[in-house]
Amino acid sequence: MKEEGGTPDIATKDGYDVQIQTNHLSHFLLTAELLPLIEKEAEENGDARVVNHSSKARMTLWNGLEEKYFMKNGGNLGGDGGNVLIFMGARFTRYAHSKLANVVFGQGLHTKLCAKKNSKVRVVSCDPGASKTSLMEGMPMGGLEGKIVAFLSDHNLQSAEDGSMSLLLAMMGSKVISGEYYAPKMLKGRTVLETLARRETNPDSIDMLWKRSEEATGVTFTI
Fold first, then answer.
1. Could you read off the pLDDT of 30-51 as tens digits, one per residue?
2. Which of 92, 120, 152, 178 gets the most CB atoms within 10 Å of its CB?
């Protein structure tokens, strides 16, 4: 599934914002469906993981998740404005919510699994830093803005291969602990353990996201 980033303010056929449905709700549903198999694997072999791939751009305007982005408000969430150079504006606010949701969901799942006695499933989150991928394709760029973005991409972004290191560590690192977050120390470079902020661990945000995600997907995420 291709990630959506900076897309227009449009609704899916289910009524949700396309970025929210692609980047978060689909992952929530898939994890809910696969969790029994994941838990079985962990019991039989001592390790199984759910890894959520977030983004450095998970900073939201109000420094936390807003419930309206996870309701049937697709097409009515701020319009199509946005500046790709500073990654700000309505289309990028929606993207930020979708990527913050990845981390909040991971923290919620980690907390719920920890409360379940003897669960061996590890839930880990990560981001690739500033990496040159296809995410920028389809974003509104033209003229001078497009030229600047192209120059910055060519000279300041690490390769997609280097950007995958945090994901590989989260997936395969032997010392990884459930609930941790891995990312390049700066926008690129060596992967390190990153301390999560309050907006990413807030119990109220976890409860809201869980409720709205179950409502949107029609599943009861049983743990």
1. 999 999 999 999 999 999 999 9
2. 92
Choice among 95, 132, 181, 182 that is catalytic: 95
Q: Which of 16, 99, 182, 188 is catalytic?
A: 99
The CATH topology of domain 18-217 is Rossmann fold (3.40.50)
| Rounded (10°) angle between helices 26-45 and 90-115 | 30
Q: Render pLDDT for 172-219 as a digit per residue (tens, 0 to 9).
A: 999 999 999 999 988 888 999 999 999 999 999 999 999 999 999 999
Q: What is the pTM of this model?
A: 0.89
Beta-bridge mates of residue 138: none
Identity of the residue numbered 114: C
Is residue 69 annotated as a catalytic residue, yes or no?
A: no
CA distances for 74 relative to 19, 121, 213, angstroms = 9, 34, 15
Sequence-ordered list of residues with C-beta below 8 angstroms from that of 122, at least 6 positions apart, any chain = 47, 48, 49, 50, 176, 177, 178
Q: Is 211 a catalytic residue?
A: no
Band the pLDDT of 17: cuts 50, 70, 90.
very high
Confidence category of residue 4, pLDDT binned at 50, 70, 90: low
